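Project channel, design review

CF: Before we commit to the Carpediemonas membranifera constructs, I'd like one complete example in the thread so the newer folks can see what an input/output pair looks like. Taking branched-chain-amino-acid transaminase.
RD: sounds good, go ahead.
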Amino acid sequence: MLTAFHRLYSDVNAANLKVQLTHTPKEKLAPENLTFGTTFSDHMLEIDWDAKDGWHDPHIVPFGNLELHPASSALHYGLECFEGMKAYIDGEGKARLFRPMDNFNRLNDSCARLCMPKFNAKEVEKCLEELVRLDKGWIPNKEGYSLYLRPTVIATHPILGIAPAARVKLFVIASPVGPYYKDGFKPIKLWATKEYVRAFPGGTGNTKVGGNYGPGILAQQQAASRGCSQVLWLTPGTQCNGDLFCTEVGAMNQFFLWKDKKTGKPTLVTAPLDGTILPGITRRSILELVREDPEIKKMGITVEERHYTIQEVCDTVKDGRMIEAFGCGTAAIVTPVNGIQFEDVDYAIPAGKDGVAGDLTNAVYHKMLSIQYGKEAHPWSVLLD
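CF: and here is what came back for branched-chain-amino-acid transaminase:
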């Protein structure tokens, strides 16, 4: 909820969008030379807000640096949140988005958690669509490639006191990216640690605020020093009788597929939306596919969104009931997991017949690709042209 401080005298109106074209278009890199998040398109979207007048008219402007007062709240107190989404080119050369309203609704939730103003998500989506249309030439026309979109909201209020922001800027930048796995799937090993905690009950774990990510870099470096690619985040709590329950992996949601101890049936387990994990859009999509997609339903998988402990995971591996595991998120869609290191003990996880990815991992990955690139009609895919 917004405080009384945030009096919204006006909201975003896409009909008032103003466009300023660049006079110096940048040279585009060959798709194979793209590195994630280092190349940017020609234009960006900006929308300002202040406590007096509410949301100002949206502007698409040439890509460039922001001008910020050094006392801006975003720089001192982390009043900043963001989203990650992609635009794709389908087989007919048309641009598509994947579940964009879900991203903007979640961005609104993040804003509210930081006492920053909400916005009309549909109107901002319309503005984003215009940005994508304008910079469509920056979307690599090749499957596996896309234009990564980064909507961000920052507090620009120049004050050293800790208070709700009186000025805010919403902006969107775009970056052409290649496939997360250039040579196909690569399974990863996780480091489960008691030393660091990503989120805790009552915190900000269910929002995309910058403060959830920066502190994880140190743990990520330590995981790498142990030969692991990502951190399996654990959280102590009463939900599991004080034991450590699993939440996320790196910056992704985590899934385990194992045989139920009592029934022997394949069961897909993932942490619940209890406020400590991000309500991932890829996570939601996978859960809906496993429950509703006719082909994937044939696998006979039961879905459980519940708290589960690292000890339960280790016991499942030792009992030979683990089938496969994967993380999921916008960047890679799914990332196969072939092992976990916990308390200096390695637990090997099956990774399919080819030793790379299991049947479910492959099924949801190719299904998601098919939808994102418009190979099959689906309401999740939003056609722009």
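RD: helpful, thanks. The chain has two domains: 14-179, 188-372.
CF: The mean pLDDT is 96.
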